[in-house]
């Protein structure tokens, strides 16, 4: 038997073995986006983030309101000190007051910029940590479920390609484990969350 024939037989054997292994593998699909969104801890975190966002927005509005008031005062004083009908002493006082008001306005605007930068980072960091924690919990449940049910591969079918096309075009719905994973994730949900889900 020549070497070419031997090579062909080896390749055929590898392909056959690969086909057998693939046939024995048990694959399942899950909609990770739905599991993440419908997990009770995600809903609780979203409520907390909303409340925190409203609290931050209230503080921000106070700073913005102060800045608007200072701007109006500055523009008024700035116009007054330019009034040539006033004597020099009065105009100098108006000018000094306008400069002081302008400096106060600049400080307030800088505080607003620092405020936005600080709280934007705070919320961003907290959301990233929350997402990592929740995804880690979901992944752990999926791994346990897969081992218990002898599933070799679990694929996420919620994602899309760069062309905005579903990454998984078709699969047998019997291979979808989204519902059982959601049931496991939410089995310890507070009664209020369970009632909301029923509605």
Describe this structure in words.
This protein has one domain: Skp domain (Protein Binding, DinI Protein, Chain A), CATH 3.30.910.20. It is built from 6 helices and 2 strands, in the order H-E-H-H-H-E-H-H. The chain has helices spanning 3-24, 32-38, 40-81, 88-148, 178-185, 191-198, and strands at residues 27-30, 153-156. A two-stranded parallel ribbon has the order 1-2. Helix 2 (32-38) runs parallel beside helix 5 (178-185).
Brief overview, please?
By secondary structure, the protein is mainly alpha-helical.
List the keywords.
mainly alpha; 199 residues
Taken from the alpha-carbon principal axes, the silhouette is: rod-shaped
CATH class: Alpha Beta
Q: Which oligomeric form is depicted? A: single chain
Q: Please indicate the percent range of residues in DSSP E strands (runs of 2 or more).
A: under 5%
Instruction: Briefly note the CATH topology name.
Output: Protein Binding, DinI Protein, Chain A
Uncertain runs: none
End-to-end separation: 73 Å
Tally of individual domains: 1
Taking the sheet with the most strands, its summary is:
2 strands, parallel
Helix fraction, binned, reads over 70%
DSSP helical segment count = 6
Number of strands: 2
Q: Give the strand line-up of the largest sheet.
A: 1-2
Q: What is the CATH architecture assignment?
A: 2-Layer Sandwich
Average per-residue pLDDT, rounded, comes to 85
Structural class: mainly alpha
CATH superfamily: Skp domain
Topology:
Blueprint: H1 3-24, E1 27-30, H2 32-38, H3 40-81, H4 88-148, E2 153-156, H5 178-185, H6 191-198
Parallel strand pairs: 1-2
Helix pairs in contact: 2-5, 3-4
């Amino acid at each position: 038997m020549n070497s070419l024939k031997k090579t062909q037989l080896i390749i055929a054997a590898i392909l056959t073995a690969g086909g057998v292994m693939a046939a024995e593998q048990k694959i399942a699909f899950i909609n990770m986006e739905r599991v993440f969104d419908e997990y009770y801890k995600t809903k609780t975190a979203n409520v907390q983030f909303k409340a925190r966002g409203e609290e931050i927005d209230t503080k921000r509005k106070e700073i913005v309101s102060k800045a608007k008031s200072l701007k109006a005062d500055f523009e008024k004083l700035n116009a007054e000190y330019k009034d040539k009908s006033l004597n020099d002493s009065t105009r100098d006082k108006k000018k000094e007051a306008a400069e002081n008001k302008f400096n106060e306005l600049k400080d307030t605007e800088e505080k607003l910029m620092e405020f936005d930068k600080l709280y934007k980072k705070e919320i961003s960091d907290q959301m990233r940590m929350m997402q990592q924690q929740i995804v880690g919990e979901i992944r752990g449940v999926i791994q346990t479920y897969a081992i218990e049910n002898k599933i070799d591969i679990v694929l996420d079918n919620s994602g899309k390609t760069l062309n905005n096309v579903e990454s998984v075009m078709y699969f047998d719905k019997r291979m979808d484990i989204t519902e059982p994973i959601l049931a496991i994730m939410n089995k310890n949900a507070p009664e209020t969350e369970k009632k909301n889900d029923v509605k």
